[in-house]
Amino acid sequence: MRLVLVVISSFFLFSCSQTFYVVRHAEKAVPTANMSSDVPLSDVGKQRAERLGGLLHTKKIGLIYSTNTIRTKTTAEPTANFFSLPINIYVPKPDSAFIKLLKSQKKNTLVVGHSNTIDDIVNMLCGETKVAGDLDETIYDNLYVIKRKGKKFTFRKDKF
Question: Is the separation of the CB atoms in 158 and 145 below 8 Å?
């Protein structure tokens, strides 16, 4: 009986998985003289945010993180609205404490960042370099998927 409990416990312990979906904010509007540095999404960016939300509808998202800018929060909103989740704010430059927090929560998570932070988030989650450096300013359609099963991480880059 004890052996059966150990086997069953091990199965549940190692079969649990967590997936991180990491994206750069969608296309931003062209800044105007009257606009602050907190630029909103363009119409194309709003459409991309909706596409992202539609793509993630089947992914059982349990947490959403965004920096405190209009463009990142607006990118996360369709997903947050679908799952009735708050958008948690993280500091613009992610650090090891933020990554530890993400890994500790054991829920599928959407993280929306910027061209100069996506590489840091992905690489720290994976524990190795998967994204070589900052994203080009014209790239908005990468979806980085990091899946954790036990202590093993897998990585793939998709488009949306």
Answer: yes
Average pLDDT of every residue of the chain: 91
User: Which pairing describes strands 17-24 and 108-113: parallel, antiparallel, or unpaired?
Assistant: parallel
* 74 sits in which H/E element: helix 70-83
d(CA 30, CA 21): 26
Q: Whole-model pTM above 0.85?
A: yes
Which residues touch 87 (CB under 8 Å, ≥6 apart)?
Answer: 64, 65, 66, 73, 76, 77, 80
**C-beta of residue 19 within 8 angstroms of C-beta of residue 64:** no
Instruction: Give the pLDDT confidence of 96-121 residue by residue, as tens digits.
Output: 999 999 999 999 999 999 999 999 99
b vs e for 18-32, b when ≥16 Cβ sit within 10 Å of the residue's Cβ?
bbbbbbbbbbbbeee
Question: What are 41's strand-pairing partners?
Answer: 28
